[in-house]
Amino acid sequence: MTHTLHRRGSADSLKDDYVVMQLATVGINNIGAAPKQKTALEIMLKHNPVNWTNLDWGSKFKDGYKRAIERYDPNVDHIDDDVAVFRSKKDFEACVAELGAAGLGLSVVVSGLFDELFDSLHKLGLNPHTVQYSLGTFGNLERLPPENILEITTMCGHHCVSPALVLKMIRDIKRGRISTEEASHALAKPCVCGVFNPTRAERLLEEIITPEPR
Amino acid sequence: MKTNDVTGRFHKAEAGFSIDIGRPGVGTTMKDVEKIAMEVAKLGVEFEFQNPVTMLMADKNSGKLRKDVMGEVIHSCVLEFKTDIRRVPLVVETLKQVAERVDTVFCVGCIGRVLSDGSIPVRTELDKAGISYRPNGKVCVGLGRPEANFGEP
């Protein structure tokens, strides 16, 4: 599942977009991982994430913490990923530092601009282990929506955020029915993995609806 | 790649590929999935055995899919395989060629280890071949335990 790899936009546009994921591996370290996943989620929540999820318990925009944590069962041996999205490098670094210090022993994966990620990891004394590069999109590219829509929809790597929903949100904002913040939250809801960045979406929506100066 | 620190799936002389077929947002037929799988299979790649698409293959050497799934139209799927790192340019060239013959889109991800001196052999291969990649991507931090034994110096 490469759900945070192919986020589109310029380097400048991706500067407020950091994703942190913690996960156990079945057959290796999943036994007894549930309390560790709970600890990781609590650490993530301390550092101002703009979105988060535990794929088994629930997510920020669908469930909220109270409902999500009710589903926590310490005896379940296979708990799905914890994910949090940050808009600032400071919050991102603080979260990764605390996850590292907690010594939970589960895999941690971070997504963002490589230069920023490597800078942060080196600052924190962590050595990157494996990387994944996006070589872009191939095939019949004429079937894709416009680039400014893709910049929003690819923040959900499974593409559960429909371009049609983005267009509806743009129409509703222009008609004064909804704010850009409300629209960005509505767009975050279908992304069950919780990797959609509503703060960046809000900025991108503003850019789309603001007429270019003549 | 997310758990390579504990699984040891990708060694330093290997490159992994993830082909997100049908994404972003276009969908795909299984016929197009098979076309891509069969082209890369000709290069002798090793399909990831725990991947759902691999499980639908009638023949893992040729990349041919089972007959009963060939009529399906799906939202997306991910084809995963690995190969010798020196074959990265050949794989990318093959993907570019098969891209001309499918009626969908696919996103290509390329995976590699970071060595203890900080170098990234897969990036070196991409740079040498003039293959461009995005400035953003994913990094496995290496906090997973027990650490995978790669049997490497």
Write the layout of secondary structure elements.
The complex is a heterodimer of chains A (214) and B (153).
Chain A (H helix, E strand, L loop, with lengths): L17 E6 L10 H12 L5 E4 L3 E2 L5 H6 L11 E5 L2 H14 L4 E7 H10 L6 E10 L7 H7 L9 H12 L5 H9 L9 H12 L5
Antiparallel strand pairs in A: 1-4, 1-5, 2-3, 2-4
Helix pairs in contact in A: 6-7, 7-8
Chain B lengths: L3 H4 L6 E8 L6 E2 H12 L4 E2 L4 H4 L1 E3 L4 E2 L7 E2 L2 E8 L3 H12 L5 E9 L7 H8 L7 E5 L13
List SSEs of chain B in N-to-C order: HEEHEHEEEEHEHE
CATH class of chain B: Alpha Beta
CATH topology of the largest domain in chain A: Alpha-Beta Plaits
Tally of domains of chain A: 2
The rounded distance between the terminal residues' Cα atoms of chain A is 43 Å
What fold name stands as the CATH topology of chain B? Alpha-Beta Plaits
Which band does the percent of strand residues of chain A land in?
Answer: 15-25%
Q: Helix and strand succession of chain A? A: EHEEHEHEHEHHHH
What's the pLDDT, averaged over the residues of chain A? Answer: 94
Structural class of chain A: alpha+beta
Distance from N terminus to C terminus of chain B (CA atoms, Å) equals 21 Å
Strand fraction of chain B equals: 25-35%
List the keywords.
heterodimer, A: 214 residues, alpha+beta, Alpha-Beta Plaits, 2 domains, B: 153 residues, four-stranded antiparallel sheet, two-stranded antiparallel ribbon, 5 helices
Structure report:
The complex is a heterodimer of chains A (214) and B (153). Chain A is of the alpha+beta class. Chain A has two domains: 112 residues, 2-Layer Sandwich (Alpha-Beta Plaits), CATH 3.30.70; 69 residues, no CATH class. Chain A contains eight helices and six strands. Chain A has a five-stranded antiparallel sheet. The model of chain A has no long low-confidence stretch (mean pLDDT 94). The model of chain B has no long low-confidence stretch (mean pLDDT 96). Chain B has five helices and nine strands; from the N terminus they run αββαβαββββαβαβ. In chain B, α2 runs antiparallel to α4. Helices cover 26% and strands 27% of the residues of chain B. Chains A and B meet through α3, β5, α4 and β6 of A and α1, β1, α4, β8 and α5 of B. β5 of chain A pairs antiparallel with β9 of chain B.
